[in-house]
From TrEMBL:
<dbReference type="InterPro" id="IPR004839">
    <property type="entry name" value="Aminotransferase_I/II_large"/>
</dbReference>
<dbReference type="GO" id="GO:0008483">
    <property type="term" value="F:transaminase activity"/>
</dbReference>
<keyword id="KW-0663">Pyridoxal phosphate</keyword>
<keyword id="KW-0808">Transferase</keyword>
<dbReference type="InterPro" id="IPR050596">
    <property type="entry name" value="AspAT/PAT-like"/>
</dbReference>
<keyword id="KW-0032">Aminotransferase</keyword>
<dbReference type="InterPro" id="IPR015422">
    <property type="entry name" value="PyrdxlP-dep_Trfase_small"/>
</dbReference>
<protein>
    <recommendedName>
        <fullName>Aminotransferase</fullName>
        <ecNumber>2.6.1.-</ecNumber>
    </recommendedName>
</protein>
<dbReference type="InterPro" id="IPR015424">
    <property type="entry name" value="PyrdxlP-dep_Trfase"/>
</dbReference>
<dbReference type="InterPro" id="IPR015421">
    <property type="entry name" value="PyrdxlP-dep_Trfase_major"/>
</dbReference>
<dbReference type="GO" id="GO:0006520">
    <property type="term" value="P:amino acid metabolic process"/>
</dbReference>
<dbReference type="Pfam" id="PF00155">
    <property type="entry name" value="Aminotran_1_2"/>
</dbReference>
<dbReference type="InterPro" id="IPR004838">
    <property type="entry name" value="NHTrfase_class1_PyrdxlP-BS"/>
</dbReference>
<comment type="similarity">
    <text>Belongs to the class-I pyridoxal-phosphate-dependent aminotransferase family.</text>
</comment>
<dbReference type="GO" id="GO:0030170">
    <property type="term" value="F:pyridoxal phosphate binding"/>
</dbReference>
<feature type="domain" description="Aminotransferase class I/classII large">
    <location>
        <begin position="32"/>
        <end position="388"/>
    </location>
</feature>
Length: 397
């Protein structure tokens, strides 16, 4: 009897991807679904970046590249980290990959051994825990409360650390909550890490530019933390380049070397054409990225207002990214045509099938009272989506 590997039973397919699949299937049947489940900008990639890619094809950038990315691309990342984050890295500390997701995978595979504990504040982005489980690490979730805007406190962090703790992983701005850690909040966490020098940090900053409250701050700026922080970023969200597949990590040299080694056996490198375009994105002016952020900000104001007007939803105004994460627990126990909504999964299925609105269950992010609604969509779709949401929730008894 042939058998698939045991490790498959340890991980699950992301709920976000499952929902996108289901939505596509219903759409293919001709059902008009408003899809607010997707975590990607609805904008096209800015024209100057597209032009750079076309030029790269014509100039013959169509061969294998170095595993870690072209030398001038790594230099462009160094430039970006200095320009935007005032962080000094050498090019050999930068490893370019096929997306922030792969960069995180490279880092986790480089850090986590079986039995190592990894602290993940929740709600969190679905992939973190699954990568840890692939490495047979122990995931230690730390639930963060809506009262603290879903951010981990220094006391919670301290309490979760044990001698076995090897890694702490988080995103700011956060998917799914939109939480953004301020400089003071990060400094307070950094004080805790200063007492525990054995812990690595993966700081996922993929939503860096999509920040409505002020300057992006990185935990790598504090004390010696840069020596054990893997900073993750990429082009998917800020430049509307999800399909191009480019992410990168910046890390202490030994860790960057490890990531390079792992990647060399998986993908070799990301697409040569994407890499050339990325140089233009990273070194060019940011006005097109900022125009997208301005549009997200308007949509946020609309959707925050619309959700706040629905009785029963508990909503906080997100500080970054492009998601709303309302608490929907007031609807648990209610029914429609004899079917009872017991949890956020049921509510999402109800909204999908009865209101033709696609959103993602909070269970996917370890917060079972919430649902995630993406506002990376046109105002027209958001208006229609909010109408369907209000009607759908309104008819639950
Ligand atoms: N981190 C977070 C928090 C994300 O939301 C996503 C995309 N949904 C990623 C990483 C992966 O991004 P990429 O497209 O660069 O792989």
């Amino acid at each position: 009897m042939t058998q698939l590997a045991e490790r498959l039973s340890r991980i699950s397919e992301p709920e976000t991807i499952k929902m996108a699949k289901l939505t596509r299937e219903l759409k293919a049947k001709g059902i008009d679904i408003v899809d607010l489940s997707i975590g990607e900008p609805d904008f096209d990639t800015p024209p100057h970046i597209r032009e750079a890619a076309k030029k790269a094809i014509d100039e013959g950038f169509t061969h294998y590249t170095p595993v870690a990315g072209y030398a001038d691309l790594r230099q462009a990342v160094v430039h970006k980290l200095k320009r935007d984050n005032n962080l000094e890295y050498a090019p050999e500390q930068i490893i370019v990959s096929t997306g922030a997701k792969q960069s995180i995978a490279n880092a986790v595979l480089s850090i986590v051994d079986p039995g190592d504990e990894v602290i993940i504040p929740t709600p969190y982005w679905v992939t973190y825990s699954e990568l840890v489980k692939l490495c047979q690490g122990e995931v230690k979730f730390v639930p963060c409360s809506i009262e603290n805007k879903y951010k981990i406190t220094p006391d919670q962090l301290e309490a979760a650390i044990t001698p076995k703790t090897k890694l702490f992983m988080f995103s700011s701005p956060c998917n799914p909550t939109g939480a953004v850690y301020s400089k003071e909040e990060l400094a307070a966490l950094a004080e805790v890490f200063a007492r525990h020098p054995q812990i690595f940090i993966i700081a996922d900053e993929i939503y860096e530019y999509i920040n409505y409250v002020g300057k992006h701050e990185s935990i790598a700026q504090f004390g010696d933390l840069k020596e054990r922080t893997v900073l993750i970023n990429g082009l998917s969200k800020g430049f509307a380049m999800t399909g191009w597949r480019l992410g990168y990590l910046a890390a202490p040299t030994a860790l960057a070397k490890a990531a390079d080694k792992i990647q060399s056996q998986f993908t070799s490198a990301t697409c040569s054409i994407t890499q050339r375009a990325a140089i233009t994105a990273l070194t060019g002016d940011l006005s097109s990225a900022m125009a997208m952020v301005a549009a997200f900000k308007k949509r946020r104001a609309f959707i925050y207002g619309a959700l706040s007007n629905i009785t029963g939803l508990k909503v906080i105004e997100p500080e970054g990214a492009f998601y709303m994460f309302p608490d929907v627990s007031a609807f648990f126990g209610k029914s429609f045509e004899g079917a009872t909504i017991n949890n956020a999964d049921d509510l999402c299925m109800y909204l999908l099938h009865k209101a033709h609105l696609s959103v993602v269950t909070g269970a996917a992010f370890q917060q079972r009272n919430c649902i995630r609604i993406s506002y990376a969509n046109s105002m027209e779709k958001l208006e229609e989506g909010m109408k369907r949401m209000a009607q759908g929730l309104g008819q639950l008894q």
